Model the fold of this input.
Amino acid sequence: MKRQGLEGKAVKALTIAGVMSGTSADGVDVAICRISPALRKGGAPRVKVLGHRSFAYDAKLRTAVLAAMDAKQTSAAELTRLSWRLGAVYAECVAVTARELKLKPQLIACHGQTVYHQGTAAPYLGQPVRCTWQIGEPSLIAERLRVPVVSDFRPADMAAGGQGAPLVPMLDFCLFRHAAKNRLLLNLGGIANVTALPAGCSVDEVLAFDTGPANMIVDACMKQLYGRRFDKDGAVGARGKVFDSVVATLMKASYFSAPPPKSCGREEYGEAFVTRFLGLCEREGARKQDVIATATAFTAETILDAYQRFCLPHLGQKAHATEMFAAGGGTRNATLMRKLREGFAALGVRVATTEEEGLATEAKEAAAFALMGWLTWHGLSGNVPSATGAERPVILGRISLA
Done:
């Protein structure tokens, strides 16, 4: 894997804590990994997850994070305070993980909490602007733990013409590429994203993009209708009736037919979308459990549609030899996973989770940013331009020294 780097920079193995808090805003995942150089020239770095922990946001912090994401209006003071509070939370999560696993990270790679992401350009003050913002003060993490921190990964890709997402395909390529099989990697966080790896592909042949919402719509509806954070085990969705007319109406949105590269977030599938979705369900006479069932079915349909529109043509003639590995919180929704397994089985694709390949589903995104932190520390580019749309490979992130 030939990537841009800094001449003369010694590349060595490091123990790195990757820290991820996603668009579901449910908490923090920490994965402590050993990242090592490739065994051969042109090969991919080696990633070994040594252990991981997950931490839920407390109710007040989650409310503040969600309010910042969906805010029509807020203050600089509120966002600044939240960023520093999150920095302290991330530091504590890494400290607890390191203590419990009896491991000492040499570097921390912290994604931060996305409060706004606009992957495509829109007019602002007379000029087209694309932008992204992840908060969680890295200098506070570095000072409290006395370990260097790599953060702010997405802006460099956007500055190079990319959408700043998805970034996880670099890990997918390093861990899951197979010489003889096509592989799909599906992440089910707040947003769903997929990586398509043709058999024996190079990094330039990776296709990856956000397919649409994953847990985000179900979680929002569960909160409004049941006062719960999520549909545990998919139990509510399993009891309801799916209103196919609602799913069909939502699938007409231009995002789903737009070709990659593309990314989305709470800006597209936040409060306004949920209000529209609930309105469509109400007009059909849906009960509460029917709303959750329909939201779950909609999520599955967006993923299946994305595979058939974009991944299948990309994988080419060997598409029959394709297997999918899912990760993220959505894998715990048995109803969603059943719909995906049934839908993909009809297309000749076997669906499993990353656990089958030795990677805990909750650890994947955190491990991805551990890898990106390792690449940044060594002056190596970490984006996949074929996934993000960037004009070139670039070094991602900023370093805060202890």
